[in-house]
Amino acid sequence: MFDYDLFVIGGGSGGVRAARIASAEGGAKVALAEESRMGGTCVIRGCVPKKLMVFASEMPEAVADARAYGWDASVGAFDWRRFRGSLDAELDRLEAAYRNTLKNAGVTVFDTRAVVVDPHRVRLADGREFSVKHILIATGGRPFVPDVPGAELAVTSNEMFHLEALPRRALVVGGGYIASEFACILNGLGVQVTQYYRGDAILRGFDDEARGMVAGAMIKQGIDIQCGVDVARLTTSAGGIVAQGTDGRAREFDLVMYATGRLPNSGGMGLEALGVGFGSNGKIIVDDWSQTAVPSIYAVGDVTDRINLTPVAIREGHAFADTVFRGVPTKADHELVASAVFTQPELGSVGLSEEAAKGQNSSEGRGPIEIFSASFRPMRSLFAGRTEARVLMKLVVDQVSQRVLGCHIVGPGAGEMIQLAAIAVKMGATKADFDRTVAVHPTVSEELVTMRKPARVV
């Protein structure tokens, strides 16, 4: 007999979902160990607090628009401490909700670190050991900071929610979605923002036309984006932190934030000696069922570095529990997963970019790609006098099959819109399916169903 049917290491979205389903619906005896706060990166130090900061940073623009629409409205100074207090209270509420979910499902929770002793045994930091039938690793990821002189002077996204005060001048290092989102957040809160990215354009991996529009809008809003530049070293000065750039310039900031990628939290748990396979970046290698090379050990979420998104981790955790404890063999579906970047403006994306679709069809000897694209000034901001604001609606279509291979949206509410567009793309909708859908007018999204002629064929 085992002490537990399942022992989950990690209390983030994937681990909590797996534990709950295995216990409440699978009838398993389940325990979960979490050495930090329950809820994981997304709830405690990721997408949830970040989205609340996005909302806060958008308020000045909303007030300015209100004046243009006839309201006697004004905005004063931003009270960071007041906001942070409310943010802390909300995160406490969410953590409590996660704990109650586990409690109500009958899961035993250990608020401590756990390591794997052998394929059927785990040990807690206090020395207690338990025999277990199955082990699930759901320990997520952590920010990566390059090894540059003075790197200890910088913060990461983990610390951004706990700043004692907002800086006057901030340097954000990185060009991915986390870096770009925080650059926009800080800019919206009144911080003078510079963004360094060693590549040629931010938001690598997203559609070139879409990311170019986002970058252009960020620059117009006052963010100093410096591509082809990295930090050579950081030093302190009487006035703050001096960043010596690879372009030869030394610039002074009050805060330097690194958002240069994330690494799987896979080390120090005893897995290496058991035969679990690891990738070059420390990711745990699993098969389509989230099973490692050791049959009793599974892994889900960012620690496997498949698609590092919270909803994907939840799907992986649920599929694992269905397969192992509910007798319903289920593979997590990683195809056509939609994503949103909460920059200002937002970027929503599902499926292939124009560049990826062109390359795929070319390599497979298939026909050309049709690009349907519309860029325009939306009614709401145009009336408010923000004539520089633009929206992009884009469909990537296979010319032969007419299947929509990708959809990309830039503009307010792009994240909300792409969720619905993703349903159609996931179902294999063709351009004709979009065309015969009657538009909802006047809306921004109606452009998705009114583009009749391709802007280009590639």
The main β sheet shows up as:
7 strands, mixed
**Mean pLDDT across all amino acids:** 97
**Backbone shape:** globular
Uncertain spans, ≥5 residues at pLDDT below 50?
none
What would you say this structure looks like, in words?
- The protein is α/β, with parallel strands linked by helices and 458 residues long.
- 31% of the residues lie in helices and 24% in strands.
- It contains eleven helices and 23 strands.
- It has helices at residues 13-25, 40-45, 47-68, 80-104, 177-188, 208-220, 310-325, 354-363, 379-383, 414-426, 431-435; strands at residues 4-9, 30-33, 108-110, 114-118, 121-124, 129-137, 141-143, 155-156, 169-173, 192-197, 224-227, 231-237, 240-245, 250-253, 255-258, 262-264, 297-299, 339-341, 347-351, 369-376, 391-398, 404-410, 456-457.
- Strands 1, 2, 3, 4, 5, 6 and 17 form a seven-stranded mixed sheet that branches. The protein has a six-stranded antiparallel sheet with strand order 18-19-22-21-20-23, with helices on both faces. The protein has a five-stranded parallel sheet with strand order 8-15-9-10-11, with helices on one face.
- A hairpin with a 4-residue loop joins strand 5 (121-124) and strand 6 (129-137).
- Helix 1 (13-25) packs parallel to helix 4 (80-104) and helix 3 crosses helix 5 (177-188).
